[in-house]
Amino acid sequence: MAAPSQSPVVIVGTGVVGVVTEQLLDAGIPVLMLEAGPRVSRAEIVENYRNLPLAAKGNPIECYPSREWAPHPEPAGAGKGYLQLSGEDSYAQSYVRYAGGSTWHWAGTCWRLTPADMQLHSRYGVGRDWAFDYETLEPYYARAEYKLGI
Ligand SMILES: Cc1cc2nc3c(=O)[nH]c(=O)nc-3n(C[C@H](O)[C@H](O)[C@H](O)COP(=O)(O)OP(=O)(O)OC[C@H]3O[C@@H](n4cnc5c(N)ncnc54)[C@H](O)[C@@H]3O)c2cc1C
Prior knowledge:
The chain is mainly alpha-helical. It has a domain at 110-150. It has four helices and two strands. The structure holds flavin-adenine dinucleotide (FAD).
Protein backbone atom coordinates (compact mmCIF):
# COMPACT_ATOMS: atom_id res chain seq x y z
CA MET A 1 0.00 0.00 0.00
CA ALA A 2 1.35 3.43 -0.96
CA ALA A 3 2.12 5.80 1.89
CA PRO A 4 -0.40 8.65 2.12
CA SER A 5 1.01 11.79 0.52
CA GLN A 6 -0.83 14.12 2.88
CA SER A 7 -0.29 14.64 6.61
CA PRO A 8 -3.11 13.12 8.62
CA VAL A 9 -5.61 15.28 10.47
CA VAL A 10 -5.96 14.27 14.12
CA ILE A 11 -9.42 14.78 15.64
CA VAL A 12 -10.05 14.44 19.36
CA GLY A 13 -13.55 13.10 20.06
CA THR A 14 -15.92 11.33 17.67
CA GLY A 15 -19.18 13.30 17.89
CA VAL A 16 -20.81 15.36 15.16
CA VAL A 17 -17.35 16.08 13.77
CA GLY A 18 -17.79 12.71 12.03
CA VAL A 19 -19.57 14.65 9.26
CA VAL A 20 -16.40 16.67 8.62
CA THR A 21 -14.27 13.56 8.94
CA GLU A 22 -16.17 11.92 6.11
CA GLN A 23 -15.50 14.92 3.88
CA LEU A 24 -11.77 14.79 4.67
CA LEU A 25 -11.63 11.08 3.85
CA ASP A 26 -13.55 11.66 0.61
CA ALA A 27 -10.89 14.24 -0.28
CA GLY A 28 -8.17 11.63 0.30
CA ILE A 29 -6.91 13.17 3.53
CA PRO A 30 -6.04 10.58 6.19
CA VAL A 31 -7.71 11.09 9.55
CA LEU A 32 -6.88 9.78 13.00
CA MET A 33 -9.75 10.07 15.52
CA LEU A 34 -9.01 9.75 19.23
CA GLU A 35 -11.91 8.78 21.47
CA ALA A 36 -12.02 8.70 25.27
CA GLY A 37 -15.08 6.46 25.60
CA PRO A 38 -15.91 2.86 24.74
CA ARG A 39 -17.37 1.72 21.42
CA VAL A 40 -20.75 0.14 22.13
CA SER A 41 -23.14 -1.30 19.56
CA ARG A 42 -26.68 -0.02 19.03
CA ALA A 43 -27.95 -3.47 19.95
CA GLU A 44 -26.32 -3.24 23.37
CA ILE A 45 -27.80 0.20 24.00
CA VAL A 46 -31.29 -0.97 23.03
CA GLU A 47 -30.80 -3.97 25.32
CA ASN A 48 -29.78 -1.63 28.16
CA TYR A 49 -32.94 0.40 27.59
CA ARG A 50 -35.12 -2.70 27.60
CA ASN A 51 -33.63 -3.77 30.92
CA LEU A 52 -34.09 -0.43 32.68
CA PRO A 53 -36.62 -0.28 35.49
CA LEU A 54 -39.79 1.48 34.33
CA ALA A 55 -39.06 4.55 36.47
CA ALA A 56 -35.69 5.07 34.74
CA LYS A 57 -36.97 4.74 31.16
CA GLY A 58 -37.79 8.46 30.99
CA ASN A 59 -34.08 9.28 31.23
CA PRO A 60 -32.37 7.61 28.27
CA ILE A 61 -28.91 8.59 29.51
CA GLU A 62 -29.32 5.54 31.77
CA CYS A 63 -28.70 3.36 28.68
CA TYR A 64 -25.11 4.61 28.63
CA PRO A 65 -23.49 3.56 31.91
CA SER A 66 -20.24 5.47 32.51
CA ARG A 67 -16.97 3.62 32.49
CA GLU A 68 -14.75 4.37 35.47
CA TRP A 69 -12.06 5.56 33.03
CA ALA A 70 -14.43 7.73 30.94
CA PRO A 71 -17.13 9.16 33.22
CA HIS A 72 -20.02 11.34 32.10
CA PRO A 73 -22.88 12.85 34.12
CA GLU A 74 -25.61 10.38 34.99
CA PRO A 75 -28.11 10.18 37.85
CA ALA A 76 -26.85 6.80 39.07
CA GLY A 77 -23.76 4.65 38.55
CA ALA A 78 -20.11 5.47 37.98
CA GLY A 79 -20.78 8.96 36.58
CA LYS A 80 -22.90 10.08 39.52
CA GLY A 81 -21.43 13.30 40.85
CA TYR A 82 -19.03 13.63 37.90
CA LEU A 83 -20.35 17.05 37.06
CA GLN A 84 -19.88 19.54 39.89
CA LEU A 85 -22.15 22.56 39.78
CA SER A 86 -22.26 25.50 42.15
CA GLY A 87 -24.56 28.49 42.51
CA GLU A 88 -28.31 28.85 42.85
CA ASP A 89 -29.39 27.61 39.46
CA SER A 90 -28.17 24.15 38.73
CA TYR A 91 -28.23 23.21 35.09
CA ALA A 92 -29.25 19.60 34.54
CA GLN A 93 -27.10 18.92 31.52
CA SER A 94 -25.99 15.59 30.19
CA TYR A 95 -23.64 14.22 27.56
CA VAL A 96 -22.34 10.83 26.55
CA ARG A 97 -18.66 9.92 26.61
CA TYR A 98 -18.86 6.98 24.21
CA ALA A 99 -17.61 6.50 20.66
CA GLY A 100 -20.05 8.69 18.72
CA GLY A 101 -20.52 10.99 21.71
CA SER A 102 -23.84 12.65 22.54
CA THR A 103 -24.39 12.65 18.77
CA TRP A 104 -24.80 8.87 19.03
CA HIS A 105 -27.62 9.37 21.49
CA TRP A 106 -29.41 12.66 20.89
CA ALA A 107 -33.21 12.98 20.66
CA GLY A 108 -33.24 14.02 16.98
CA THR A 109 -34.94 17.41 17.31
CA CYS A 110 -33.37 19.66 14.69
CA TRP A 111 -34.23 23.30 15.02
CA ARG A 112 -32.75 26.01 12.86
CA LEU A 113 -32.05 29.50 14.15
CA THR A 114 -34.37 32.01 12.52
CA PRO A 115 -32.94 35.06 10.71
CA ALA A 116 -34.07 37.20 13.70
CA ASP A 117 -32.18 34.92 16.14
CA MET A 118 -29.00 35.99 14.38
CA GLN A 119 -29.73 39.71 14.77
CA LEU A 120 -30.60 39.97 18.45
CA HIS A 121 -28.67 43.18 18.98
CA SER A 122 -29.85 45.16 15.96
CA ARG A 123 -33.45 43.98 16.30
CA TYR A 124 -33.95 43.79 20.08
CA GLY A 125 -30.95 45.54 21.66
CA VAL A 126 -29.68 42.46 23.49
CA GLY A 127 -26.65 40.23 23.01
CA ARG A 128 -24.68 40.43 19.78
CA ASP A 129 -25.49 39.98 16.14
CA TRP A 130 -23.85 37.13 14.27
CA ALA A 131 -20.96 38.18 12.03
CA PHE A 132 -22.87 36.88 8.97
CA ASP A 133 -26.51 36.56 8.02
CA TYR A 134 -28.93 33.67 7.77
CA GLU A 135 -28.60 33.41 4.00
CA THR A 136 -24.90 32.67 4.42
CA LEU A 137 -25.65 29.91 6.91
CA GLU A 138 -28.59 28.36 5.09
CA PRO A 139 -26.72 26.13 2.61
CA TYR A 140 -24.76 24.61 5.49
CA TYR A 141 -27.98 23.89 7.37
CA ALA A 142 -29.27 22.15 4.27
CA ARG A 143 -26.12 20.02 3.96
CA ALA A 144 -26.15 19.09 7.66
CA GLU A 145 -29.85 18.23 7.57
CA TYR A 146 -29.33 16.06 4.51
CA LYS A 147 -26.53 14.21 6.31
CA LEU A 148 -28.65 13.78 9.44
CA GLY A 149 -31.57 12.42 7.45
CA ILE A 150 -33.97 15.25 8.25
C1 LIG B 1 -29.99 13.08 26.04
C2 LIG B 1 -29.61 14.11 24.99
C3 LIG B 1 -30.55 14.49 24.04
C4 LIG B 1 -30.23 15.47 23.10
N1 LIG B 1 -31.17 15.81 22.17
C5 LIG B 1 -30.90 16.78 21.27
C6 LIG B 1 -31.87 17.16 20.27
O1 LIG B 1 -32.94 16.59 20.18
N2 LIG B 1 -31.55 18.16 19.41
C7 LIG B 1 -30.34 18.82 19.46
O2 LIG B 1 -30.11 19.71 18.63
N3 LIG B 1 -29.40 18.46 20.39
C8 LIG B 1 -29.65 17.47 21.28
N4 LIG B 1 -28.71 17.12 22.21
C9 LIG B 1 -27.44 17.80 22.19
C10 LIG B 1 -26.57 17.23 21.07
O3 LIG B 1 -26.61 15.83 21.11
C11 LIG B 1 -25.14 17.73 21.29
O4 LIG B 1 -25.14 19.15 21.37
C12 LIG B 1 -24.21 17.31 20.16
O5 LIG B 1 -24.36 15.93 19.86
C13 LIG B 1 -22.80 17.65 20.58
O6 LIG B 1 -21.93 17.23 19.55
P1 LIG B 1 -20.38 17.33 19.82
O7 LIG B 1 -19.71 16.68 18.67
O8 LIG B 1 -20.03 18.73 20.19
O9 LIG B 1 -20.13 16.48 21.17
P2 LIG B 1 -20.32 14.91 21.39
O10 LIG B 1 -21.21 14.29 20.36
O11 LIG B 1 -20.68 14.70 22.83
O12 LIG B 1 -18.86 14.36 21.10
C14 LIG B 1 -17.76 14.66 21.94
C15 LIG B 1 -16.86 13.43 21.93
O13 LIG B 1 -15.61 13.74 22.51
C16 LIG B 1 -15.18 12.65 23.32
N5 LIG B 1 -14.22 13.16 24.28
C17 LIG B 1 -14.44 14.01 25.31
N6 LIG B 1 -13.29 14.26 25.95
C18 LIG B 1 -12.31 13.57 25.29
C19 LIG B 1 -10.90 13.45 25.47
N7 LIG B 1 -10.27 14.09 26.46
N8 LIG B 1 -10.22 12.66 24.61
C20 LIG B 1 -10.88 12.01 23.58
N9 LIG B 1 -12.21 12.09 23.38
C21 LIG B 1 -12.91 12.88 24.22
C22 LIG B 1 -16.47 12.15 23.93
O14 LIG B 1 -16.37 10.84 24.41
C23 LIG B 1 -17.42 12.25 22.73
O15 LIG B 1 -17.39 11.11 21.91
C24 LIG B 1 -28.97 16.10 23.12
C25 LIG B 1 -28.01 15.68 24.07
C26 LIG B 1 -28.32 14.69 24.98
C27 LIG B 1 -27.28 14.24 25.96
